[in-house]
Amino acid sequence: MLKHVAILVIVLLEIGVHASAIQVASVAKKVTCETLKCEEKPGQVCFQTLDEDPKCVERKRNVEYCADKQCNMAMTCRDSEIGYICYATRYDVPGSCFNLVCDKKREVCVQKKGKSAKCVKIENAPKCEDKNEIYTDCEAGCDASCKDPEPVCDQYVCNTGCKCRKGFARINGTCQTFDKCPKSELGMGICQPNEYFTYFPPSCSTNCRGEEICESITIWGATCTCRPGYKRNAFEECVHNTQCYKEICRRNEKWDKCKNCETTCDALGLRSCHSKYCYSGCRCLDDYVRDRNGNCVLMSNCS
């Protein structure tokens, strides 16, 4: 009898030791950037993606990592091959933006860590640190890059956070224009960095002056055209819309965010300005109107 009791005690002790070992092992599996201490290893940095445990990797030149810069707005920072990205939450978190419908014209969905998603007015949306970023309730992480200028976002994944504005690519963690891309990553070298090669160019496009340029269908063909979010300036270079203010306007003109907010000789006293149709370009100076030849003249000179 005593022999059986002794064997039972030994078995229980072994089970207890085994369970403790499993518990210790499970605790040991939890790896964080703090426990890795990558910064203590020469040339190493902690690298943590959305789906994998953090690891030490060789630091790339001119790339910003989460270890270098923390996200604001109670967001979570995650690393990627094109730099760090700030996320507020993932689509599979209960109460996330994935299933919340907001008024897209006036509202945006916001969700901070540990809280349920809610619709807020666009002007009250979280502000991104990078001036070339914009807050998005569903496309954070789906940024254009030098290798993939027009990524196709997964319609079943909804990550809230910051993404590059239209016409910008995430380069080394920050949003920049395509002319900052390494030439080796832009693919075909036929076109300029802010252009793309196409066999079906748009029939009409608007330049920095706000003029609509239309080509005859008879001269269509393979050509280089401006990337989305870019316009041609006076030097026939494709520049981002936000850089059009540098355009050199003609006599009696000035660059304005609302180019079409001006009067013409054919409609004296009437202004075509309406925020819904506002677009940038060179407009006539005050007290001047645009004549049928496209020049800005005094009203008294209208013929």
From TrEMBL:
Q: What range(s) does the TIL domain occupy?
A: 130-181, 249-302
Specify the superkingdom: Eukaryota
What GO MF terms are annotated?
serine-type endopeptidase inhibitor activity
On whether Signal is a keyword of this UniProt record, the answer is yes
Q: Which UniProt keywords apply?
A: Disulfide bond, Protease inhibitor, Serine protease inhibitor, Signal
Q: Which protein is depicted?
A: TIL domain-containing protein
Which species is this UniProt entry from?
Caenorhabditis auriculariae
Q: Name one Pfam family in it.
A: TIL
How far does the signal peptide extend, from start to end residue? 1-19
